[in-house]
Structures are given as C-alpha cells and as structure tokens.
Amino acid sequence: MDFNNITCGFIGLGLIGGSMARAMKQKAPGMTIKSYTPHPETSLRAKEDGIVDVALTAIDENFSDCDYIFLCAPIERNNDNLEALVPYLKPETTVTDIGSVKTSIHEKVKELGLEAQFIGGHPMAGTERIGYINSKASILENAYYILTKTPLTTDERLENYRQLVELMGATPLIIPYEQHDYATAAISHVPHVISGCLVNLVERSDSEDGLMKTIAAGGFKDITRISSSSPVMLQQICLTNHKNISKLLDNYIDYLKEMKQVIDNVDGDGLMDFFSSAREYRDSFNDLSKGPIKKSYVTRVDIADEPGNIASVATLLSVNGINIKNIGIVHNREDEHGTLSIEFHDDKAMEKANKLLDAHGYPAVG
Length: 366
Prior knowledge:
The protein is of the alpha/beta class.
C-alpha cells in the first residue's frame, strides 16, 4: 500500500501521537497529516516542524477525508472525542486509539455502531518525558504495537493497518482486547501499584532522620523508578482496568503470604527455589523489543573518590560523541571508592560507552 497518498488525522498530539506522526512523515513524506489538540500551539509547533500539514481548531468536518484517525488523548477523553467524531466519519475511515486499556473504548465503539471501522491500538513504547516537544520517530522502533480488532473488522482493513504500523518501525501484534487488558495489567499496571507501595512503605517505615531515604540507591531506585510516572495517567489506568488489576493483586497478595511463610519457616530450599525460578524466568525475557514500562539504559563504574574523576569520565564520553542523559554518584559504598551511575538515551550509546570505559580502566560493575 502506498501511504504517501493517504490522509491521517490526530486528535491529541503528545509524546506517542507526536512520535507516530514523525515516524509516518519520515517514511511517507507525501502523507497528509491533520491534527487537533486542545492546546493549538502544539499543532502549530508540529506544523512548523513539517510534521503536521493542517492544524485544526476543532473536531469537525475537516476530519471527513481522513483514511485513518488516531485518538491520542488521555484514556478518559478518547471516548468523548470518538463520539464527537461520529457525524464526520466516512465508512472507509479506520478509527483507532493508542490507549493502554482497551475494554472501555471497545465498549464505546460497540455502543456507537462503529465496530466495522474501529481497530484498537496500543504502541508499547515511550519515555519518562511527556508532550509533543519530546516526541521522536525512533521511539516506535522495534516496539510492540498491539492491535485489537472487533468482530466486524475485515481482513483487508486489519492488514492495511498492520502495514502502517510496520511503516512506523514498530512490530504489530494482534490479540483480543480482553487478553490485552489482562496482560498489560500483569506486566505494567500492577508493577506500578507495587512500586508505589514499596516507596510508600519506606516512607512510612523511615526514621525521623530519614536514614532509609538517604541510603535508598542502586537496586531500590531501579525497581521503583516507575513510581516517577504521571499520577494522573496511573489513576486513569487503575480506574479503567480495575477488575484485572484487582484480580492480579489478589494473586500477588496470596503469593506474598506464601513467601512470608517460607521466610518465617527459615526454609532455605524454598528460598533458593523462589529466587532461582525468578532469575531463570527473568533472564529468558526477549530484550530486543520495547515494553510498556519504559526502559532505562544505565551503566555503573567504580571510581576512586578523588577530585576530577567524574569530569574525566564525562569528558571521555563526550569527545567520543556519546551523549549522557544523567550522571551521578551512588552514595552507598563503605570504602574509598564510589560508584558512578551513568544513564544514556538508548542501548547503542550504552553499549558503545561500556566498551570505551572498559578500555580506559573503568569496567562496568553490577
């Protein structure tokens, strides 16, 4: 299919919507892209960037000639925007969304009689930054892009959309929307709840001098990094996918009680089985594709606690063309050495940096 001759409409143009539009325009520069956002300056900025061709000021008849319309607003707004679109939709238009919960939008689609032209979408990618200003075409590369069809979705419509996803550089995966919501509850939504519980547990358990907060570094910061995600987004996810999240939390609570019993019984074999099976399954994960929880690219190296060492490492990376996203000392060592934590924008930069640092006497540490 020649995507240079189609028109795509975006309602909402944040990090993911903006990244999708950039990827499409990069691969099919002849494509016409229209966008409406509640903040007109966003669409105007995208137009100045050459990504958006037509900046719209409302959901109106200007969307009537679109071949695809992407609902890219927050989950709680997409249903309303879909309803506003109905008077302007032609039967050939494929309507889709990018929400991380699919049941609500599929139920709305059925209510509005749009099952023949709706296909749910969830690009499982992103960064901790938000907004169009942080969008990049590369965000979609190798990311799984879930497609959830309806009982009335034709093979032709699904195949055309699948090809559009591949054009963006993502990997399409077609599954039922119910299965999508259960799976994302397990691998994304529940982990956010657990991470928040761990952080709040430490806050409630900390001493008056804040010792736990002071030494919370390394592993604890790694496993609770997702607690820095948007509270508004997480609130909406929990409200719209509450049944699946609650069911899985019940299972998790039962498992915690089981493991508490193993610990109470000082069961060495049980503990070994627990940690070994977790390690084995974790190490079997495919690390080639991105997932719903944003990945960080962090390397740690031991350095002597002497003036100028951080600057030396930063300069070494800089003169070799490696951009650093963040850098700092992890203050939890008991000897004269410190651990320097360096965060990069992607895995390629991290891999290049690791080789360079190792060659200059700064091997990565666990």
